[in-house]
Amino acid sequence: MVGGRTALKPRPTEIRERILEEAIRLFAARGYDGTPLQAIADAVGIRKQSLLYHYPSKEDLRRSVLEQVLAHWNDVLPHLLQAASSSHGQFDGVLGEMVAFFNADPDRARLLLREILDRPRETRELMGRLIQPWVRVTCDYIRKGQERGRLRADVDPEAYVNQVINLLIASIATFEALGATDCERNLAELVRVAKSGLFRPED
């Protein structure tokens, strides 16, 4: 009872979301191997068996966590495709949205960085399924921008996209460890570097 009323039990979807949130935080801090399911259940405030009801195995939880983080890119990347062949302002806005997503919770970037280093084969398969289709289309848009003279002709589209992804994830994941206290200043420089590497100077 709370204030004379029966407290409402969390809905299954709310519990699943809380499990994912805590799993992201703990996997990012301790790594997948260093995080037992019991620690995640304790952080959520449920029994381990209740966690396993929602996610039948630790591997299933890991994949759900990664899919949640990477799925956001599938929402943002179509807009980035248009920005890559249009204008500085639009590019700033879309890249800024991607930066803001990771900066709002740096554990997302730390989680991906850990997974890339600890499980490169599995992470490559997952990113290949969720991200690579959009990467290929992004590269096509960059080539169109090059043909129209808006973008640098010497840019290697595939290498550029890979480097921007690496820059985004690694930078946000390591800002704190490297003593980057002025986060906004460092993020602004990240966007400047990405933009200056793509657009022609006279644009």
N-to-C span: 64 Å
By CATH reckoning, the class of the largest domain would read Mainly Alpha
Taken as a percent bin, the fraction of beta residues is under 5%
H and E string: HHHHHHHHHH
Using the CA coordinates, give the radius of gyration: 20 Å
Identify low-pLDDT runs: 1-7
| Total number of domains | 2
Shape-level CATH architecture of the largest domain:
Orthogonal Bundle
Description:
- By secondary structure, this protein is an all-alpha fold.
- It has two domains: 8-56, Orthogonal Bundle (Arc Repressor Mutant, subunit A); 66-196, Orthogonal Bundle (Tetracycline Repressor, domain 2).
- The protein is 73% helix and 0% strand.
- It contains ten helices and no strands.
- It has helices at 12-30, 37-44, 48-54, 58-84, 88-104, 107-118, 120-130, 132-147, 157-174, 183-196.
- Helix 6 (107-118) crosses helix 7 and helix 6 (107-118) crosses helix 9 (157-174).
- The longest helix is centred in the middle third of the chain and has 27 residues, at 58-84.
- The protein is elongated, with a radius of gyration of 20 Å.
- Residues 1-7 have low confidence and may be disordered.
Which structural traits does this protein have?
Arc Repressor Mutant, subunit A, 203 residues, mainly alpha, elongated, 73% helix, Tetracycline Repressor, domain 2
Write the layout of secondary structure elements.
Layout: H1 12-30, H2 37-44, H3 48-54, H4 58-84, H5 88-104, H6 107-118, H7 120-130, H8 132-147, H9 157-174, H10 183-196
Helix pairs in contact: 1-2, 1-4, 1-6, 4-5, 4-8, 6-7, 6-9
